[in-house]
Amino acid sequence: MKDITTKSDIETVVNKQYDLLIHDKETAKIFSHLKLDEHLPRIYNFWCFVLQIEPEKNRYTGGVFGPHTKLNLKVEHFDIWMGHLNTALLPFEGEKRNEWWDKATQQAILFKYKLGLEPFEMKVIKRDK
User: Fold this and answer.
1) How far apart are CA 49 and CA 52, in angstroms?
2) Mind listing the pLDDT tens digit for each residue in 5-27?
3) How many domains would you assign to the chain?
4) What gap in Å lies between CA 74 and CA 90, rounded to an integer?
5) What residues contact residue 111 under an 8 Å CB cut-off, 6+ apart?
6) Is-above-0.70 flag for pTM?
């Protein structure tokens, strides 16, 4: 298996995760309003920026948290999101894959705290290898 090294790899992971999310009975309603042809390129650029994969070509601007405040998210939605990310990352292994998982874990913890869903607590979320 290879590590995540290109924007194409990021697109593969994001597309798989969002496909799982929009077909999951628990999260489908949350994602049904999105215009994926507009939304997904922003997500690709976000992860390129976070993972420093061609960030000069894939600029991300804007805030990540704000749009999520209007979605009536619950703790279980973040658990599902992380589970689908885990599945989407399975074809990859290596430093960037692990970094993606770690950054997404941190983001989920912070979002849950900022949304008032859980107290702030850094914890490790196990992933399949």
Assistant:
1) 5
2) 999 999 999 999 999 999 999 99
3) 1
4) 25
5) 65, 68, 73, 78
6) yes
